[in-house]
Design a protein that fits this description.
Layout: H1 6-20, H2 25-32, H3 36-43, H4 51-61
Helix pairs in contact: 2-3
């Protein structure tokens, strides 16, 4: 069985963390200094996100950026 792509893993982990924190895409985007549609695109795997924005998102969640790319990430 093929594993998921890094883009899919990132999308899943962002959604998990956002749901854990009970925060909307709009509120989370504001916290990161990004646009809500950008966060939506990331979660739908339609956006190729930069390393800089992965770092911004990780900081907003208070986790290491590398955790966002772990398939077995537990939040």
């Amino acid at each position: 069985m093929p594993s998921q792509s890094l883009r899919e893993t990132l999308a899943i982990n962002i959604r998990l963390l956002r749901n854990r924190d009970k925060i909307s895409q709009e509120d989370f985007a504001e916290k990161c200094g990004l646009h809500r549609t950008y966060i939506s695109d990331i979660e739908r795997c339609t956006r190729n996100i930069s390393i800089d924005n992965i770092e911004r998102i990780a900081k907003a969640f208070g986790v290491p950026a590398s955790d966002l790319l772990k398939e077995d990430f537990k939040c």
